[in-house]
Automatic annotation (TrEMBL):
GO molecular function, one term: 5-amino-6-(5-phosphoribosylamino)uracil reductase activity
UniProt-listed Pfam families: RibD_C
InterPro entries according to UniProt: DHFR-like_dom_sf (IPR024072), RibDG_C (IPR002734), Riboflavin_Biosynth_HTPR (IPR050765)
Coiled-coil features, chain-numbered ranges: none
Database matches in Gene3D superfamilies: Dihydrofolate Reductase, subunit A
Domain Bacterial bifunctional deaminase-reductase C-terminal: from-to ranges: 3-178
A biological-process GO annotation: riboflavin biosynthetic process
UniProt organism field: Saccharomonospora marina XMU15
Protein name stated in the entry: Dihydrofolate reductase
């Protein structure tokens, strides 16, 4: 059975999206990007909301530019190789291969995906992840914590949820970014 992983870059004060501006520094260097690529290379399916898909579809063509670094080319190839499911009531079509639209998040369908998958899945974006967390579907949480406090926005963890997690891996990068991987108990 595959795991469902929720992973996002988050501010030091726990926001996956800042109310204003970005989440700060620490996640945009080659060391971090290579690490992220290595961790998610085995992922077989990405579950996205519309907004996260519109951000990530960049990887469909990211490898085509001139002088693209090897770590960016590799991440693009890995992303392109994976299946993508976009949960949206408004998106009319997709612009990437191996991608389909679902109009509603169905926890039972995701349970079946996990049971049948040979490779792990990720759920990306705080709104969609909140639904998966509420349904008890998330097996691991991968936080990439920046050095910034942003004071507001969309939280990494949804309100009104209690989780008992076990820290299974951590790493600090030269940029100040901290990676923490937790597993549900």
């Amino acid at each position: 059975m595959a795991k469902l992983i929720y992973s996002m870059i988050t501010s030091l004060d726990g926001y996956a999206e800042a109310a204003e501006g970005d989440l700060g520094t620490g996640a945009d260097d080659q060391e971090v990007h290579t690490f992220i690529g290595d961790i998610f290379r085995p992922v077989g399916t990405y579950l996205y909301g519309r907004r996260m898909y519109e951000t990530m579809v960049f990887w469909e063509t990211a490898h085509e530019g001139p002088d693209v670094p090897a770590h960016i080319q590799q991440y693009a190839r890995d992303w392109q190789a994976a299946e993508k499911i976009v949960y949206s009531t408004t998106l009319e079509s997709v612009s990437s291969a191996k991608t389909r639209i679902e109009r509603a998040f169905d926890p039972d369908a995701v349970r079946r995906l996990k049971a049948e998958a040979d490779h792990d899945l990720t759920v990306d974006g705080p709104n969609l992840a909140a639904q998966a967390i509420a349904a008890g579907l998330v097996d691991e949480y991968h936080l990439f914590i920046t050095t910034s406090v942003v004071g507001g926005g969309k939280r990494f963890f949804p309100d009104d949820v209690r989780l008992d997690l076990e820290l299974v891996e951590q790493r600090a990068f030269d940029s100040g970014l901290i990676y923490a991987r937790y597993r549900t108990r």
